[in-house]
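Morning run. Coffee first, then this:
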Amino acid sequence: MIKARFKLMLAAALSAGFLVTPLLTDTASATQYKDRFLELRENLNDPSNGYYRQMDNGLKIPYHSRETFLCEGPDYGHETTSETYSYYVWLEAMYGKFTGDWTQFSDAWKSLETYIIPQDKDQPNNDAYKADDPADYAEEFLSTSKYPTECNGQTHVGKDTLSQELKSTYKTDNIYGMHWLLDTDNWYGYGTHGEDGSSGYTQDGEPVFINTYQRGANESAFKTVTHPSWDDCKTYGAGDKAGFLKLFNGSDTHQWRYTIASDADARAIQATYWADKWSKDDNEGQSQVTADVAKATKLGDYLRYSMFDKYFRAIGCQDNAYASGTNKHYLLGWYYSWGADTDFEQSWNGSWAWRIGCSHNHFGYQNPMAAWILSNDNADNGTKDFTSKTKTGKQDWTQSLERQVELYQWLQSDEGAIAGGCTNSYTTDNGSYQKYPAGSSTFYGMVYDEAPVYLDPPSNRWFGMQVWSLQRLAEYYYETGDVRAQSVLNKWAKWAMNNTKFTSDSYQMPANLGWSGQPGTWDEKNKTSDNSNLHVTVDAYTDADIGVAGSYANTLFYISAANNKYNYADTDTTAATKETGEKILDIMWNSYKDDYGIAKAEEINPKNYFDSEIYIPSSFTGKMGNGDVIKSGVKFIDIRSGYKNDPDYAKVKAAYDTNTTASMTYHRYWAQVDAALAYGTHEILFPDVTGDINGDGTIELSDYTLLRKYLNNGGESSNIKIDVANADVNGDGVVNFFDLVALKNKI
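And here it is:
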């Protein structure tokens, strides 16, 4: 009876169009996803492919992209971001997992600590910092033309309660965080600073700390003035004791200043957790990366500065600068920054220093996985290795974890995607800390912000923010089983998969999102809000964003694996998430793999490079490190003349001259790593490759034949032995004729 039923079901499937051919000859490796990870890493490490700058000390610095004609976050392809470094650490963590070689992971950390965390010589005079007076207040505005703003030492700011704790623990006044941007090859020509802060710049070929965004939410990458983080106010900018600060805050004080990107520092911590955990697997439970764990823990201690309001004002203060209450929102703000004067000799009143937190919070920068790692001290799951030595570190990260998970719940749209974020400083062209508009939704006293931090383009338009952030939430769900994360993730996955389209050799996933409405005000007591008026639309699709596709697949794999681990009732979603991720990865490999990695051509608008005018006040004239003149009316290309020597310049200029787009194929470092990590994640989460019915390490015709025989003879009631776990090819929790069809397609 069972045999007859299986035959009937199989016949029905075939009659529905599932034609099964007996001539299945291709063989798939049971370790193909691991092999793909290793091949992509090999592509990245091939010196001829140009992904790294090789330093004389044996360390490597990863470039943002192997191609150079590129402006997006960084304004040149051979710059390096803290994001890039965090992916470097993550790549080598997974490499250690598969090979047992942990030296490459430790070398990544050595490079990070050497080149993108400012050394003591890069941040002198921090001992002059006053926690009771952390920074002079300066208004923010939306429009670039409202700058420079003015610093006002008389406007009230709050108190920094973290600095003394960090100094007591680490015996230094200096900050341990990754500045977000390096001019890796000194392309701009600023050079490194003199040892005493007054001897100008040295053209020694070393990487240079630089910065771009300084002037409000409408300052796009194409409208920035790239400047050195160490500004001596003599050599570049306006010169003659003015430097670049005259463009930003009207000051002419020579100073250094650095800014971290909180998501990057948190990602490095997240990656180090996995390295620590995996390194114990092949070393009898003993970590092989203990020194690097200590560095990650220290990074997390300083990352708490991003939990503070920018000027340490009370959360929810609005236009009342003297409002009482906590000045920590416990989320990962977009940044934190710190600076001081470059030498003592020319300071007005002796040395001085400043620090600021961040009032603006984007869901895309949150990392509940890192918060869990830094708040949980359980020896069984490995988090004890990351226990803070500071007095309030564990407490802060415990609070942050809860606040971050609630933020996802608050921002989940009616359809399932996650909306932008919230801010403690509602900003208009009238300035910062404005009173919230009537009817605005709030979250723990902060107002809803559809596009936190930047508006050109809106910061929550890009689908990449969805998958980057949800991947971290999915890891957290996998490690803990938190039902709140389970609910958010499965609703999100259904929305994302419903908006992902496939053909036999391509996929279309969301690229740009549109937003309307707002969430309800968060009920802090009952932990809920009515989000029926918060909506998202998919305004554009893409198959060219390789890193996003990789992170998307990675996220789906963790959701599927966690659903299985915690017996989530919706087995259809559990199966679909795994299958969708596999489809994306297989198409990426089969359709877009090239000699350098994985990439697909994309169209860029040359007008951004040639027509984007940079706002410069008529009163300002100066020069860049490369000698280009800074003056009113300059365009992006005018102060970046090095682009005219780029191998791709002629192609982009020709497209501009003919009013067409230029086709560019980019291999962004982070994107290659995100793709590689997705392949490796599949290997780790699903080590028993579905389809290997006879367990011989390959997937071939003999597996198809064995499964068909098993089903035709009654399945479980037959005496035919198969690997049942591998036989559930479509991942729906049962073995039936649909798995036979899925196996045919896999082969």
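The chain has 20 helices and 27 strands. Good start to the day.
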